[in-house]
Amino acid sequence: MPRRWVQRMQLALAELCPEFNTHRMVREYTESCYLPALDHFQRLGADGCAGARALAQWRARVTATWHDTRVERAESSGSGRLNTGSRSR
């Protein structure tokens, strides 16, 4: 058994396991996905689902008028971020 290789692998595991493990993954998913989704769900359901009703009305309005929406031209120099409504020049 090559001792230097085994030592190297033991060191790698000791350094990597605290960073790459299921506990960290579950914590990150909870913080970045599940809790924001729960917050969104609670906001939509508050006040007799007023938020959900408003969202449904907005979606119906967008769907009904979607045929009137078009993109005439889109350009980018590829040199940076272009925000909606701003010009690339």
What would you note in describing this structure?
The chain is mainly α. Helices cover 65% and strands 0% of the residues. The protein has helices at residues 3-16, 22-65. The protein is flat and about 70 Å long.
What's the alpha carbon Rg, rounded to whole Å? 25 Å
**Count of alpha/pi helices:** 2
Provide the low-confidence segments as ranges: none
Strand coverage percent:
under 5%
Q: What is the percent of helical residues?
A: 55-70%
Helix/strand structural class: mainly alpha
Order of helices and strands: HH
Overall spatial form:
flat
How far is it from the N-terminal to the C-terminal residue, by CA? Answer: 64 Å
Task: Give the key terms.
89 residues; mainly alpha; 2 helices; 65% helix; flat
What is the strand and helix layout of this fold?
Layout: H1 3-16, H2 22-65
Concise structural overview:
Helices cover 65% and strands 0% of the residues. The protein has 2 helices and no strands.
